């Protein structure tokens, strides 16, 4: 092991042979210090492969980099990802199969992660925000370059704009690693720092098949951007409320599939994760749909997180509560009931309440308010069961509403 000129802050490690534990140690060092963005995960795996002698072709059979689909590296031998359709490595496990280290170069900058260009690399002199709070956020989600995101959206041109919400405009972009992403550019005129931090800290720390993946964020001067995996089918509200032709494509089994996915995610947030989260803002606008119409919950900027003893220090950026009372959870239950009714009736959420639809009455079996395209297709009995479930979710007294776990089990059984 030989150190080069310390003024250059670069170290070269040369190994001629090693046992498995030392090999694993070097691989982990190479990955943890040299890899910090999604594209870097791919690049670092290439470097690791190139740095190893593999006489038995143990890696060669699966470590192929000619594939550009999302999640392709998750199929590599010894690689575990955060999510099977994200090229973000969680862990590397390489058993001793005759692998030997040739040479590993590890670059170490004088900061913990090189996930964003520094001021000298910005062609227009944009100032980089180096707030200590940002360093904590970098431990959760990759920090990305404003210049790269601006370039990917043609400087946030209208041609790339795909939506506008309460926090700002959303743009579709193709980033250098071949991913399609959705970039939310927060309104600079509003003070949205708390919402920005909440979205990164909560959503960035969670991994579930029915939560939208948060890929990265950007902070430079007054700019605040959030980068998500792009959901090609937009949000559920658009499918239900824009045109009749679009809504007809959502047949009953597909609507139930969406309801099951949303209920599953909420039940997991309430009871199944390492910490308990109340979303507080569930609506058809916050439910995104991927290419298979699997639902992905987004918009965690109003979410509430319960304090845990072993909570990571980065979570201290949030206003935590010591204990979430049952009424907090039951707000999510009520809002899910509204979403369920929107799926069944195609009425807007402001039109839906127990009183307006007479949900509290058993005579609601007439199904007068149900979307007509759903009736007479052999699903009427299941529709009535779901209407009853929606009624229970929307009971006026919170403690009379079911838990989200009970809701999920009921919807899953009906489907």
Key terms:
415 residues, alpha+beta, Phosphorylase Kinase, domain 1, Transferase(Phosphotransferase), domain 1, 3 domains, six-stranded mixed β-sheet, two-stranded antiparallel sheet, 12 helices, 32% helix, globular, disordered N terminus
Could you give a quick summary of the protein structure above?
With 415 residues, this protein is of the alpha+beta class.
CATH topology annotation of the largest domain: Transferase(Phosphotransferase), domain 1
The rounded distance between the terminal residues' Cα atoms is 61 Å
**How many β-strand stretches?**
16
The main β sheet shows up as:
6 strands, mixed
Backbone CA Rg: 24 Å
Number of domains: 3
Describe this protein's structure.
The chain is of the alpha+beta class. It is globular, with a radius of gyration of 24 Å. It is built from twelve helices and 16 strands. Helix 1 runs antiparallel to helix 2, helix 9 (326-345) packs antiparallel against helix 11 (380-393) and helix 11 packs antiparallel against helix 12. It has helices at 20-34, 38-50, 132-138, 146-152, 193-203, 236-241, 244-248, 252-272, 326-345, 354-357, 380-393, 404-414; strands spanning 10-14, 52-53, 79-81, 89-92, 100-101, 103-107, 142-143, 161-164, 168-174, 180-186, 214-220, 223-229, 277-278, 287-289, 295-297, 304-305. It is 32% helix and 16% strand. The protein folds into three domains: 34-98, no CATH class; 132-229, Phosphorylase Kinase, domain 1 (2-Layer Sandwich), CATH 3.30.200.20; 234-308 and 325-414, Transferase(Phosphotransferase) domain 1 (Transferase(Phosphotransferase), domain 1). The strands form six sheets. It has a six-stranded mixed sheet, sandwiched between helices. A two-stranded antiparallel ribbon has the order 1-6. A two-stranded antiparallel ribbon has the order 2-5.
